[in-house]
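Indole-3-glycerol phosphate synthase, Oceanobacillus jeddahense. C-alpha cells?
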Amino acid sequence: MTFLEKIIDKKKQEVAERKLQTFGKHTRKNPIYSLHKSVQAADHISIIAEIKRASPSKGAIQMNVDILEQAKQYEQSGAAAISVLTDESFFHGSLNDLKAVSEVVSIPVLCKDFTIDEIQIDDAKNAGASIILLILAALPLERFQRLYNYATEQGLEVLCEVHNADELKDALTVSPKIIGINNRNLKTFEVDLQTTTELVQQIDENGLTIISESGMRTKEDAELARNAGANTILVGETLMRSENVEKDMQALQVPLSSSAKGAF
Ligand SMILES: O=C(O)c1ccccc1NCC(=O)[C@H](O)[C@H](O)COP(=O)(O)O
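C-alpha cells:
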C-alpha cells in the first residue's frame, strides 16, 4: 500500500465519522477571494505560501508555529494566497487553523486536504476557504469531475493537482482555470522540479493559473518554474523554516515575462 493510499483510507474513515456528526455550520466571516484573478493581474510570479507544521516526508517542521503571525507575515510579504494544511492525522493541521487564518487575512485561503467528498467542500467553505484542492492521483476521474462541479457551483475555485501526463489529461476534461503541478510524487515522496517543465509543455491553453508545487527553495527554483511556463509557485517547508519570510518571499517573486504560458 502506498502512503497516499494510506492517507485516503484514513480520510474515508474520517468522512464517514464526520457524516454522523450534526454540529452546526461555521458561519464564515470573510468573502470569497479569487486567486485566479490576482495571478492574471500580477507581473511577477505569484506565491501561495503554506502553513505546514509537519508532513509525512519530513516529520516535524515547525510544530510550535504561531499560525496567525505566520499568515499575517505571508500576506504582508505579498503572498497571493495562503495554503492551510487541514489534515490532522498526517500534517497536524485542522479546519480550525483554516478558519482562524481566513479571519485575519484578506487574500484567498486554500484548504489543502485530501478531498474525496462534498461534505469536505461544505466544511472548507464554511470555515472560510476560497479554494479547495482536488488531487487527481487520489480520485477516480468521475469523482474528480463531480467534486470539481460541486465546488465551482459553491463559488469556490479549485486547484486541480497533477503529477503526470495521464492526470493532466484527466484534469483538462473540466477546463480548469487553476492547475497545480506537484513536483513531489505523493506515492514515493521523491521531488523533481523537472516535473513542472515536462507537464507545462503539454498544456495548450493560455491564461491559466499554473502552479509549480513543492521543493521550491531558491530564486533559481522560481526562475526554473517561470521559464517552464508556470506563473505561480506553492511553497511550504522553505517558508516555514525561514528566519526572514519577507526577504525569502521577495527573492522568490521573480518577474514574469509575457511569454510565460500561464501569463496574461
Ligand atoms: O509534503 C509531504 O510530505 C506530502 C506527503 C504526502 C502527500 C502530500 C504531501 N505534501 C503536500 C504538498 O503538496 C506540499 O505541502 C506543498 O506542495 C508544499 O511543498 P514543500 O514546499 O516542498 O513543503
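Residues 30-252 form a domain with the TIM Barrel fold (CATH 3.20.20.70).
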